[in-house]
């Protein structure tokens, strides 16, 4: 499981080199003595998909990592227990396995490629794993967690921002101000707003992750005027003058 030995893993790597985003099932071996992911899930840079239940818990059969060279696997998870499927005869029923979880992420990838033409294989991989539900604390049971299309879209939108903390619009015209963090860490950010006399008029703490990034604050309780906004996000800080119309 080094991603370089199995023929099918080498084929998956070659496909990536030619511009294909490869999505595969992680395997259904967790209940067996082998337990580990099965090729080509060990290939580096492909999306190996584990299975979760409707409540987000890992399915008992879903293969685990790591690879032989100690890389995180699976990469992300999708619903693979009681997943709706269409049978060859056209009837709809349910099925379980990482093989029905994998197509859900494949369809997510297709949507990402349609929405963001021109992105690379590596761009898609990074966007999906970095915006998934446990991107900052991956493990070898859930990988980077459960991905979400909205989170991936926000990742691509914010990736082009030049600064770590972006506050907009300025002036504020509809009482809503947005704060975007280029690299959210799932830790709380501190937002403090002062009036022109230096008095603290608003203070709040919010955890930002990709599904709520940027976060929007309602300033309707503040009258028109000039304010100072201070944002603390981990090691980063930004202070700026904000005009509310």
Determine the number of helices (DSSP H or I, runs of at least 4 residues): 4
Considering DSSP H and I runs of 4 or more, what fraction of the residues is helical?
10-25%
Instruction: Determine the mean pLDDT.
Output: 94
Low-confidence stretches: none
DSSP summary, beta strand count: 12
Most strands sheet: 4 strands, antiparallel
Structural class: alpha+beta
Strand arrangement in the largest pleated sheet: 9-8-11-12
Shape descriptor: elongated
Strand content: 25-35%
Compute the separation of the termini in Å. Answer: 60 Å
Order of helices and strands: HEEEEEHHHEEEEEEE
Mind telling me the C-alpha Rg?
22 Å
Q: Could you explain the architecture of this structure?
A:
The chain starts with 6 loop residues before the first helix and ends with a strand. The chain has 245 residues and is α+β, with helices and mostly antiparallel strands. The model has no long low-confidence stretch (mean pLDDT 94). The radius of gyration is 22 Å and the shape is elongated. A four-stranded antiparallel beta sheet has the order 9-8-11-12, with no helix packed on it. A three-stranded parallel beta sheet has the order 1-2-3.
Please describe the topology of this protein.
Layout: H1 7-17, E1 23-25, E2 47-52, E3 76-79, E4 83-86, E5 92-95, H2 98-115, H3 121-130, H4 149-159, E6 165-168, E7 176-181, E8 188-194, E9 200-207, E10 215-218, E11 225-233, E12 236-244
């Amino acid at each position: 499981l080094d991603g370089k030995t199995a023929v099918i893993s080498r084929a998956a790597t070659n496909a990536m080199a030619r511009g294909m985003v490869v999505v595969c099932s992680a395997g259904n071996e967790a209940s067996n003595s082998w337990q580990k992911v099965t090729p080509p899930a060990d290939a580096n840079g492909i999306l190996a998909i584990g299975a979760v239940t409707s409540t987000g818990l890992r399915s008992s059969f879903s293969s685990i990592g790591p690879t032989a060279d100690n890389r995180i696997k699976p990469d992300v998870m999708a619903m693979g227990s009681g997943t709706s499927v269409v049978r060859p005869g056209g009837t709809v029923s349910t099925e379980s396995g990482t093989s029905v979880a994998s197509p859900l992420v494949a369809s997510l990838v297709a949507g990402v490629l349609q929405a963001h033409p021109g992105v690379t294989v590596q761009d898609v991989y990074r966007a999906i794993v970095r915006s998934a539900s446990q991107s900052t604390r991956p493990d070898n049971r859930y990988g980077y967690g459960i991905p979400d299309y909205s989170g991936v879209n926000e990742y691509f939108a914010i990736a082009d921002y030049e600064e770590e903390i972006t506050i907009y619009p300025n002036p504020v015209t509809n009482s809503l101000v947005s704060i975007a963090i280029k690299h959210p860490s799932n830790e709380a950010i501190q937002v403090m707003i002062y009036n022109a006399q230096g008095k603290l008029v608003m203070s709040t703490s919010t955890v930002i992750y990709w599904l709520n990034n940027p976060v929007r604050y309602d300033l309707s309780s503040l009258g028109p005027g000039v304010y100072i906004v201070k944002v603390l996000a981990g090691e980063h800080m930004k202070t700026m003058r904000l005009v509310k119309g």
